[in-house]
Amino acid sequence: MIIDHVGIAVSDREKSKKFYTNILTPFGISPLIEHEDWIGFGKQGRPEFWIGAGKDTKYFMHVAFAADTKAIVDAFYKIAIAEGAQCNGKPKLRNDYYADYYGAFILDYDGHNIGAVFHG
To answer: Which among 33, 51, 69, 116 could bridge 73 via Cys, Cβ 3.0 to 4.6 Å?
Structure first.
């Protein structure tokens, strides 16, 4: 990964904490730390994805998580839709992006485009 960490604003911290905890489970990602109004998610003790309340949520954000398998992409999508996310692209091979790009995309409660991608 070329970025150390990324954070996005959410309108409802607790609702979003539950949402992201559930949809990131297939990746082995979980909440690791809470600092002030922010929650840091990651694995192996290192938070890389942060959500926080109290900031302006009107700006579009796009974040895609790297998956080790297509099954993780599928599970991410299924859980996100069950949690109330809006479909922004069902899981499928997207060779129009580039070869072997298998991804799925959802819009979270604040309209952020969140994806899961497997590079086969």
So the answer is: 116
